[in-house]
Amino acid sequence: MRPLQVPEEEYLRRGHVGCAGCGAVIAMRFALKALGPDTVVVIPACCWGVIAGAYPQSSLDVPILHAAFATAGATASGVRAALDMRGEPDTTVMAWAGDGGTFDIGLQSLSGAVERDEDILYVCYDNEAYMNTGVQRSSSTPYGTRTTTTPREGWKRTRKKNIMETLAAHRIAYAATASIAYPEDMIRKFRKARDLKGHARFLHVFASCPTGWGVPSELTVKLARLAVRTNVFPLYEVENGVSYTLNTEGDLPVRAYLSPQGRFRHLSPEDIQDIQRMVDEDWRLLRAKAQGPPQRARLMA
Fold first, then answer.
1. Could you give the CA distance from residue 210 to residue 10 in angstroms, rounded to a whole number?
2. Cβ 209 vs Cβ 22: under 8 Å
3. Fewer CB near the terminus (10 Å): N or C of the chain?
4. Is residue 9 domain-resident?
5. In 3D, which of 131, 109, 119 has the Cα closest to residue 49?
6. What is the DSSP code (8-state) at residue 294?
7. Which of the four pLDDT bands, split at 50, 70 and 90, describes residue 54?
8. Do 48 and 209 touch, CB atoms closer than 8 A?
9. Cα 203–Cα 204–Cα 205 angle in degrees, nearest 5
């Protein structure tokens, strides 16, 4: 097997304060390897607002602008306008937000930026809850999950919001899902998004959270891979809101992904079957939109 084609340059410094096994840290590391040093990162309130550090300290070797929770899309738009006024159109402006700042609190700002077709790359690193403030449910939290705001028998009984379809409905030039378990695929998509100048772009990155999910830190990457292999988190791309390309197809039952996680430990076999039916339904809908068969050769586990 050939070695992974991942750039050697590092833009993530040692000594950050992310939790052990933090998938969001892995995601940022790969993202900046793909984008390179000519990048400005806008970070709203989220785990990465802490991990990046407070001024004058920083765990990143690129400029950072901290923003209010709801304003990642608007702030990134302003940074883009300022750089254009300075004659620096080639600098990539990346908004880097969690699921709370994307699916929920920041959705209006994101929607506005995409509707205006701002020349920004908006990235949601998705750990499926408000992890920075104590593992509260978000609209990204999947069906069946127990969080600190869904206690005892009150586990979440509504499905996860489909943020990719929300962005596709905006006819965004490019949107894609990516996973920390497949770095080559992730880096390819970040570079494709970086090079698509003049348009809004969106990347939805699966970032496992051992702390919030109730798993050992050494399972971070394995869980991210299982999410793909069970079709819980399919890898695919959407161009101009209508052209869908699948990058992989799952080959495992959903219980392989659910069973190791403490947040799903309360589920009965019947509950797991219900989730399997939901995953299968979503996969059928996605396959119906796809252009050709899944392109498995693009991935490397």
1. 24
2. yes
3. N
4. no
5. 131
6. -
7. confident
8. no
9. 110
